[in-house]
Amino acid sequence: MLEYCLNCDYEKTLELKKEPVIITVRSEAIETIEEFYKCPVCGEKFTSSLGHDALEDAYRQYRRRHNLVLPEEIRHWREHYGLTLTELSHLLEWDEATLNRLEQGALQETSEDKWLKFIMVPQNLLYLIISKPETLSTKKRKQLISQLSTNRIVVEALQRFYSILRENFSDFGERQMLGIK
Ligand SMILES: [Zn+2]
C-alpha cells in the first residue's frame, strides 16, 4: 500500500480519500466509490492498490442490473463438478484464456452469459458431457454422468443417439443443434 508521496518531499502518511465517481460500462452510467490517496502539498493523486476497486464494483453493479453470472459463481460451479479450466473451456468450445478472464472478473458478452447459464443447468451439462466424450477422462466422465443423471434410461438413450450422430456427421455441432449461436 502506498502511504507516502513519491512526487514531492512530503513525508507524512497520506490519507485515504473516497469520492463518488461515475463509470461508464457499455454506455450505461454507474455510480461507485473511488478510493485514492492525495498529497496535501503537491496535490498528486495516487490510486489505492488494495481493497476497493471502482471498476470491479461498477462491473458488479452492471451484472446485477442485467442479471449476469458473477465471476465467483462460475468458478464455484466449475469446482463443484471438479472440472478444470481446460475441461470446461473444451465443453464450452471456448479458449481457456476467455474462461479464465471471466473467472478473474472480465465483463462477459451477453452471448457468453447465455451460454454459461445454459451449461450451468445440470441437465445441460450432462448433455454436453455425453455429447463430447473426448473432453474428459473415462473415469471423470463416468463419475459426472452418475452425479448428474437422474434417469439411467434417458442417459443411455442419449449416449446411443450421440454415437449414431457422430458416426454419420463428423462435423456435427451440438450448439447448432441446441439452437445456441
Ligand atoms: Zn506530494
From TrEMBL:
<dbReference type="InterPro" id="IPR010982">
    <property type="entry name" value="Lambda_DNA-bd_dom_sf"/>
</dbReference>
<protein>
    <recommendedName>
        <fullName>HTH cro/C1-type domain-containing protein</fullName>
    </recommendedName>
</protein>
<feature type="domain" description="HTH cro/C1-type">
    <location>
        <begin position="74"/>
        <end position="105"/>
    </location>
</feature>
<dbReference type="InterPro" id="IPR001387">
    <property type="entry name" value="Cro/C1-type_HTH"/>
</dbReference>
<dbReference type="GO" id="GO:0003677">
    <property type="term" value="F:DNA binding"/>
</dbReference>
